[in-house]
């Protein structure tokens, strides 16, 4: 054997020591001593999965593979079968696993091929994956042309290259970036490279840098890396829960592909068959399957039959018990902040810290042990981040969650995402750990966590397909004489986002105004996120000029800008200049003018809020307006609802979904008396 001058890096520990001849040309590097500089001259990287320290090895290999400076270096992985099948280096998805069991002769041959190829200028005789072939072409400067590839599974694809730019790609029934992402999961096969002159390509359906695309592919791979906690084999078959599966909004560009995957699951197709036939790349399909499992829409995973003929059935959702009151689970990857927050929370006799967790995976495991009543959740964490953990919690066994992160300002996309996925409250973490900073935040944190602990949260269902019973029968029965004024007070933005997804806002039952617990500045940012998610026919009322309210118009207002309103005959318009002491006076003025006009009947709803505006709502009911409010137990600030219940006015609604049903089909509700006896509508 020729000495290869340590041009191959072997990631492992002492117990993985190299034997005999292999140790002469492979450099053993422990994960603790790994440095990117070690790879400067490396012709290849070898690693063991399933042994001591293999989790760290997997992280280092992934980092290497998705770094443009090192992504061209080929991998040789092996290990115990169960570990390989549960790693992110899934053969069908990444094309990176070469050997499930250790094979010393195969490893020697692999090293010699790569050593002899380096600097020879000749094309390699054997490739472990399409990704390795493509990387080599780009790095060797031979990447101006068309690469035709046929994988070992018989799948064919073609990709056009010009330097580092991917011009076009077609594979299976896919085109563009999805075809590229699909081909990145292909294993070895046959290829034909046809050179072409720069600028002569006649087809462009991508036109992006290879490294940008590869990084995007890496993000998707990272998104679904934990799917193999539930799926043991690509031959597994999934079973959907009886309810509608968690399809994204139809505005999602991949909606039809997701819908097709659900049909394949219903037909009893295996995961491998789904990845091979779905009209999406294998990696995106797998990410969606993982989302279904996380959202609780996969009720079970059926594994291939064992030798005894019995089928192994694994319930994909965790059994999370209901929590005891005021027990807090603190989830944060910073040990110092864990200690600080624990010390703060234990100063309040309403709260008991039942446990701590260092990341999302740890959080899900600690749920069983600590049985919390409320969870404080950081966002940026390793393994599984806060949003990923939040989705699982809220879709399986809902718990009140306070997101506490340094990245959640009032206009942050992360703040929107946290509310979207069911957080009751979001607190911006102190940006420093100084005594003054913490003292300033301490009282706020204690009060908001204690309030959140008392909220009854619903299972997260707003991401599902809109229910038909929330859709009006047809547009002809719309009562244009109804004016909806929906007040979402303090602590209710997450409830508003649920209402968005429950309702059919292209066909409202009348003119609708939403008053939200946001400043106008924050509302403008959140509005952009809402439009991206839902393609909603809503608009923010401008702060300049007069605006006439359309018949089916839906309008959004922040609480710091309440305009003047004019109702004349059947015309409603807003204009700057409104002078109101609080939002209660504003709503009362709208109701009074609507009734005075004789053309409209106000339908007023209240979701969370403070007690000082309750008298205005009571007066609206006294005028003859219809009044609805959400169950106080569902509100972060229940004071308003409790005051209305005590006053014996209005109709109490138990859930946001029921509230949206009232807005969609108000005929059977608006004529009910606005009175209550012992909390029950009469």
UniProtKB/TrEMBL annotation:
Pfam families: Response_reg
Record keywords, A-Z: Phosphoprotein
PROSITE patterns hit by this protein: RESPONSE_REGULATORY
Coiled-coil ranges (or none): none
Domain Response regulatory: 327-444
GO biological process: phosphorelay signal transduction system
Name this polypeptide is given: Response regulator receiver domain-containing protein
Species: Thermodesulforhabdus norvegica
Taxonomic lineage from the root: Bacteria, Pseudomonadati, Thermodesulfobacteriota, Syntrophobacteria, Syntrophobacterales
